[in-house]
Amino acid sequence: MQNKGAIRVFAILLALVSLYQLIFTYQTREEENKAKEFAKGDPQVEINYLDSVANEPVYNFFGRKYTYKECKEKEINFGLDLKGGMNLILEVKVADILKALSNYNSDNTFNEALQIAEQKEMSSSEDFITLFYNAFTELDTEARLAAIFSTVELQGKIDYNSSNEEVLKVIREESKSAIDNAFNILRTRIDRFGVTQPNIQQLEKAGRVLVELPGIKDPQRVRKLLQGTASLEFWETYELSELVSSLIAANSKVVEIEQAKDALNKPEETVAEVEAPQKEEGSDLLSAIESDSTKVDSLALQSQKSLFSVLQPSQRQKGPLVGFAMVQDTSKVNAYLQLDQVRALFPKNVRFMWGVKPLPQRELEDGTMSKQEIYELIAVKVTTHDGRAPLEGDVITNASKSVTNKGGYEVSMRMNAEGANVWARLTKTNIGKSIAVVLDGYVYSYPTVQNEIKGGSSSITGDFDVKEAEDLANILKSGKLPAPARIVEDTVVGPSLGQEAVDSGLSSFMWAFLVVLVYMIFYYGFKAGAVSDFALLANMFFILGVLASFGAVLTLPGIAGIVLTIGMSVDANVLIFERIREELSAGKGVKLAVADGYKNAFSAIIDSNVTTFLTGIILFTFGTGPIKGFATTLMIGIATSFFSAIFITRLIFEKMLEKKSDVKFGTKLTEGFLKNTSVKFLDKKKIFYAISGILIVIGLASLATQGLKLGIDFSGGRTYVVRFDEAVSASDIHESLTDEFTGAQVEVKTFGGDNQVRIATNYMVDEAGEDVDNNIEQKLYNGVKSHLGADVDFKKFVDEHRMSSQKVGPTIASDIKTKAYYSIAFSLIVIFIYILIRFRNWEYGLGALVALVHDVLVVLGVFSLLYKVVPFSLEIDQAFIAAILTVIGYSINDTVVVFDRIREYLGLHPKRDRLGVVESALNSTISRTVNTSLTTFIVLLVIFLFGGEVIQGFVFALMLGVVVGTYSSLFIATPVAFGVIDARNRKKDKK
C-alpha cells in the first residue's frame, strides 16, 4: 500500500484531535458530578454551584486554562430529546409587518392580496413579499403600491410617485430589518432564562426563528415571555449622587437583617468551605474578580452577606450608574433591593434596571482577557402618576445608524408629532442628565442630554462600533412595528423522559455493537474479525471526536445514525473480506489476495458510500431538529467508517503479514456459505415482477382505502405523553378527553408501559397564543385527573406527569409536508444522475430508479396495512421521511455493488453470452449481499428492541427498507436494466 506513512500520521492526528475534543466532555461531567454531590438532590443548589464555577479554570491543557463554561461549549451537545428541554419555532408574520408598514390600510385589494399570499405561502417556495406582489397586481393591474405604503413613517423612502419596484425594495428592507430586530429581541430574552447552551437561529424561511432551551423548568413562562410584544421606553434617570446616602444605608440594613437571620439559625447553620480572600466592603469589585491570583466566586461573596459584597458601587457620582455585579449575583442584588426595609430607604419613585449586555472584557495583568460577566445597574426615575414611562417606542417613525464627522458611528432617530413634543419637554428638563433607552425592562443605552431637542429628530452619540450602532437603531425601531412572534411549533421533553431516552439509546448502542463484534469474529475468524472490530472501535472514537469538534448535537435519531454506521462500516469490511476470499479461492497467496481484495472492492465501497452520503446531504438540507442530527451523524459516520474500514484495517493486515502471521478470512462453518449458487435471476424475472406487483397493488389498495396515519408533523395538532402511577385504560382516558376537547379528533394509545399514554388531538389547531396553550393543557389535566392521585394538582401534573408535549401549527405542517415531497423527489433524481454518470449508461440509472420507487411503495404499503395493528407507532412524520431517504440510500448502496460486479464481469468476459455473464455476476454477490444485509438488519433489530418506543417506528421503516432494498437490488434493478438493454439490442438487430 502506498503512502503508509502519511496514513499513519493522519490516523494518529485524528485520534489525538478526537481525544482532545472528548476530554472537554469528560471534564464537564466531572464538574457536574461534583455539583450533584454538593447539592444533595436540590436542583437549585446544583445550578447555583455550576454558576459559581462557570468562569473558574477546570482543565489545564499544557498551560492553556479552560473554564467550566468554555469546556461546556466544546463538549458533545445532547439534543433536547436526550436531556429534556423545550424546542420552539417562532414566526414573525411578514403579513403583519406589511400591515403595520401600511398603517393598517383598509384598501380591499391590499388586504385580499395579503390573504391570497398567506394561502399560497403554504405550498410555494416563493417568499411572501413576491407572492403578495403577484396577487396584488393580478387583482388590479393598475394598482400602485405607493398608494398603500406612502405613510408618514416611510416618508423620505416612499412617496406617492414611487414605482412598484422602488416600493418593493423598501418594504423588503423594512421587513428584513423588523425580522432581524425580532430575532435580536428574542435572543436577549432567552439570555434571561439562565439555561446552559441555549440555541437560537434564524431559519431559511423569512420570519422564522428556532429556539432550543435545554433543561427549562417553566415552559409557560417561556411561552409568555417570547410571545410578548416588545416594550420600548424612554425613562428619566437619577444621578448616583442623589442616591449615595440611601445606598450606604441600604448596605447597613442588609447587614443588620442578615446578622439577625444568622443569630436565629446559628445552631443549624452549616457553611461550605470556599476558597476566597476576605474583602472590605466597597472594595473594587472589577479588580478583585478579575485578578488571576485570587479565586473569588459567588458563593464566597454571598457568605459576607451585605449589599456591597455582591454590588460594587460606581466610583462616578455623575450619571445614573449605581454599580456593577457579576451575572450570578444579579438575582441576589434584586432580592436585597426588593426587601421592604431596604425599599423604604430609597426615594419612592426610583426603579433599578440592569444593562442588557455585560461590560466589554478587560485585559488582565497576564495578558489574558477577563472571563467574568459583569453587568451595570441603572437607576431610573418614575415621573408619571400611573408608573409608566413618559415616552414609549410607538412614537418612533425611523431610526438608523450614520457616520459622524470623526469617522465614528451614531444613531439617528425621528419621532412623530406627539413624540416630538414629549421629547422636547424631556430633553429640556434633563439637560446634563441621562435618559435611559429601555426594552423589555433592560437598559440598552443611557445617553446624556446635551441640549433641548425640538422637531423630533435627534442623534445618540457614543463609542459605538458599526454592529452596536445597528443594534441600537433596530431596538429603537422595535416600537414601530407591533408584530409579535407567534409560536408555530412547540416541543417539550421532560428531564426524566430525556434520561430514559439516553438510557435506551446507550443500551441499544452497546448491544448492537457487541452483536456486530461477535458476528464478525464468528463469520471471518478470530484474526480477521478482530481487525474489523478494532476498526469499528476506532470508528466510534472518531465519530464522537468529530461530533464534538463540529459542535454537532447528538439526538436519539443521531444515536440510531451512529449505530447504523456500524452496520455500514461492517458492510465495507464484508466487501473487502469477500473479495479476499474470492482471490484466495482463485489460488493466490494471502499477501497478494489481500492486496487485490482491497483494490477490487474499492470502487464498490466508494460508490456505496457516496450514494448514502448524498442521501445524508439531502436529509440535512430538508430536515430540522433531530432529523438534522441523524443526517449529521450519518455523514460523519460514513466518512470515518470509510477511513477506518479501508486504511486502518489495511495497515494492520500488512503489519501482520510482514510478521508472517497466519491470517484466515473464514471458519469451517462459514467458508462455503452461499458459494456456487445458481439462482436464475433474469430467467425468473417475471415471477419476481409478479410478487412485487402483488405487494404493490395490495399496498396501493390499502393506501386508497385506509390511507396512512399522519403524524402532527404533517397534519398539525398537539401530542402529549402522560405517565400515571398505575396502569390505565387508553379507552377510558379517550372517553374523558373527548368531553374536554369538544368537536376535535382525539387519539389515545398506550406508549411504552401500561401506565403511560400518548395523546394526540387537533383541538384548536388553528389557534395560537399563550392563553390557548394554557387552556388546552388545563383541559388535558381535567380529562386525566380522575386517573391521577388525589394530591396531583395542575402544577404537579405539568412538572411530573406530563412527560412531553409537542405542538405543530398548520403552516409548519404544510411546510414540512412540502419539504418531504421535495426531499424524496430530489434524492431520486440525484441518485439517477449519479448512476448515469458513474456507469455511463442510462439503463442502469433506470433500473436503480425503478427499484427505489418499488422500495418506497412497498414500505408505504406496509405502513398503511399495519398502522392499526402493531403495538407501536407507524405515523408518517419527519422521522419516517428520514427513514425513507435512508432506505433509498441503503438500497442504492446494494444496487451499486451489484452493478459494479456486473460491469466487472462484462469486462472480463466480453465474448461470453451476456445473459450468462450477468447471472454469474449476480450469483457472485449473493454471499456479500446477504451478509451485509444480515449484519445491518441485526443491528437495527437490536435498536428496535432496546432503543425505546420513541424511535421504534423509525427503526421499523429502516428494517423493512433493508429487506426490501436487498430484494430489489437483485430481483428488480438488474432485470429491469438488462430488460431495457436487451429490448434495445433486439430492436437494433431487426434494423
TrEMBL record:
Gene Ontology molecular-function annotations: protein-transporting ATPase activity
Keyword Transmembrane helix belongs to the record: yes
Protein translocase subunit SecDF P1 domain residues: 180-236
Family annotation (SUPFAM superfamilies): Multidrug efflux transporter AcrB transmembrane domain
Stored Gene3D superfamilies: 3.30.1360.200, 3.30.70.3220, Multidrug efflux transporter AcrB transmembrane domain (1.20.1640.10)
Domain Protein export membrane protein SecD/SecF C-terminal: 486-657, 799-977
One term under GO cellular component: plasma membrane
Places the protein is found: Cell membrane
Membrane topology (UniProt): Multi-pass membrane protein
Family statement: Belongs to the SecD/SecF family. SecF subfamily. Belongs to the SecD/SecF family. SecD subfamily.
Quaternary assembly: Forms a complex with SecF. Part of the essential Sec protein translocation apparatus which comprises SecA, SecYEG and auxiliary proteins SecDF. Other proteins may also be involved. Forms a complex with SecD. Part of the essential Sec protein translocation apparatus which comprises SecA, SecYEG and auxiliary proteins SecDF. Other proteins may also be involved.
Role this protein plays: Part of the Sec protein translocase complex. Interacts with the SecYEG preprotein conducting channel. SecDF uses the proton motive force (PMF) to complete protein translocation after the ATP-dependent function of SecA.
Name under which the protein is recorded: Multifunctional fusion protein
Organism: Plebeiibacterium marinum
